[in-house]
Design brief:
two-stranded antiparallel ribbon; seven-stranded mixed beta sheet; alpha/beta
Length: 171
């Protein structure tokens, strides 16, 4: 995995299926995306990292903002830092083992050493058809109350829970 780019920005916001399907407008305001959320107050969180030295602090801020949401969909270009950020987040949550992208396995399971919380890390980059997501038993993961961190969720959007939080990682 490559290091975090110089200007690495992620946008975090709660989402409903309408946002996932891009049916709600995005408003550009002072350089940050502001997204409106169905039946909720607008919520956006943006952190810009000048370099990779601030990654752990960003993961800590993100962890505090997660609330009781359990499913997070990470969008970003190849090499934007999705896996790097998820690794930092897992370390902050108490995972001591190495976190790497489950590109071929589709899902890795981690356990926090401090809370015993289960964390599922998905990578749907190699998914060709939605049937593959059904075949892996996505419901068992997404509705388990375990933390689910999903890279490349584009092909699985139709099966993501309505309260999935969307995270955009941009260079």
């Amino acid at each position: 995995a490559r290091d975090v780019p110089r200007q690495w920005t992620w946008h975090y916001y709660a989402a409903r299926r309408a946002i996932l399907q891009k049916k709600l407008p995005r408003y550009l305001q002072n350089g940050a995306f502001l997204l409106y959320i169905c039946k909720k107050q607008p919520l956006t969180m943006q952190i810009t990292l000048p370099d990779s030295n601030h990654l752990e602090q960003a993961a800590e801020a993100f962890a505090h903002a997660m609330g009781d949401r359990r499913v997070f969909a990470f969008y970003g270009k190849m090499g934007a830092g999705k896996t790097t950020f998820i690794g930092a987040l897992c370390r902050h949550l108490g995972v001591s083992e190495t976190v790497n992208s489950p590109t071929f396995a589709l899902v890795n399971e981690y356990r926090s050493d401090t809370t015993a919380q289960i964390i599922y890390h998905f990578d749907f980059y190699r998914i060709k058809r939605i049937d593959e997501v059904y075949d892996m038993g996505f419901e068992d993961y997404f509705y388990s109350r375990a933390l689910c961190l999903i890279e490349w969720p584009e092909l699985a959007e139709e099966v993501l829970p309505d309260d999935t939080a969307i995270v955009h990682i941009d260079e």
